[in-house]
Amino acid sequence: MHIIDTRQFSREFMDKIFVLAEKMRQIVLSRQPSIILKNKKMIALFHEPSTRTRLSFEMAMSYLGGHFFSTPNASESSSASKGETVEDTIKVLQGYALDVIVLRHHEDGFAARAAQASLVPIINAGDGKNQHPTQALIDLYTMQEKFGKIDGLRVAMVGDLAHYRSIRSLCFALAKFKKITIYLVSPVSFRIKDDVKNYLTKHEVWFLESDNLQKVAPLVDVIYQTRIQKERGIHFDNTDFMINKKILSLMKKEAIVMHPLPRVDEISLDVDEDPRAYYFKQAENGLYVRMALLKTMLVRE
Ligand code: CP
After folding, report:
1. What would the mean pLDDT of 31-60 be, rounded to a whole number?
2. What predicted TM-score, i.e. pTM, was given to this entire model?
3. Pocket lined around ligand 1, Cβ cut-off 6 Å
4. Order of strands across the sheet with 222-225?
5. Ligand 1 atom showing the smallest separation from residue 49 Cα
6. Given this chain, do its domains 6-131+283-298 and 133-279 carry the same CATH topology?
7. Where in the chain are the domains?
8. CATH 3.40.640.10 fits 6-131+283-298, yes or no
9. Torsion of CA 271, 276, 278, 279, to 10 degrees
């Protein structure tokens, strides 16, 4: 099984991951050594920078008694820099009797291309502007943890919706749940792509495009904020799309603010002290969800 695109997830699969993630949390909190992934080996090839994704995958293997071998800066430090194709890299790595390969790359569709060539399970840890499926599992688990259910939630996605892989993955994944409402809040030039809108329509998700965060903030259970991805050459004035005390004052008492992180200036620092600031809990959940995912993929029941 490869993990490439959230459209591949069933409700059953996601529910299983969420239940298991809760058990994984207990393993981490107990600090008891686990041997669930004893003798299992993960290679992580990251061609783009990462803090959360790479380190939480590594920590996940470590907490469960497995081994990991990581190549950050893979575009420079691996033989990709000499022109080796991903297909050749995968053929070589699978000769090392490993159990899973985690890939991050700037090219859309890179993980799917790798999966075509691989007998070893591939996990897409982010491919360009396309998808970040493990982030979506974390996002949904965080919503499930907070609200006890995902069906019926009203979610505002905010910022550069045109180029954000976490947004694409989360929209596709939310469409698997019932009675979801999505407010797509962005400058007009950064609206979400038509393939996502078509998918939401097909799956009966009610959505509305807006450029007015102040109007949307009181209506939703979740505000999912994003940053300007300067590393992809993207620039716009995000003054009207920032989360600050003013936006908090408009939100419901039980609503939450999420963000896949890293944050730059799109959530002001004084929001952190509000109990509705959920982005650091969300990042912590990344460890439990990735532990659950690795166990599901690597251990036969
Ligand atoms: N959310 C996320 O993918 O963070 P990193 O880029 O630090 O892995």
Report:
1. 96
2. 0.97
3. 50-53, 126, 135, 260-262
4. 206-210, 181-185, 154-158, 222-225, 256-258
5. 6
6. yes
7. 6-131+283-298, 133-279
8. no
9. -20
- Coil, strand or helix at 147: helix
The residue contributing the CA closest to ligand 1 atom 3 is: 53
| Ligand 1 centroid distance, CA of 262 (Å) | 7
Sign of the Cα torsion 72, 76, 77, 81 reads: positive
pLDDT digits (tens, 9 = 90+) for 88-142: 999 999 999 999 999 999 999 999 999 999 999 999 999 999 999 999 999 999 9
Task: Find the 47 Cα to ligand 1 centroid distance in Å.
Answer: 13
Atom number of ligand 1 nearest to Cα 126? 3
Architecture of domain 133-279 in this structure? 3-Layer(aba) Sandwich (3.40)
- Residues annotated as part of the active site: 52-53, 82, 104, 132
Mean pLDDT of 199-206: 98
Band of the pLDDT at 145, cuts 50, 70, 90?
A: very high
Ligand 1 atom at minimal distance to the Cα of residue 260: 1
Phi, psi at residue 186, to the nearest 5°? Answer: -160, 165
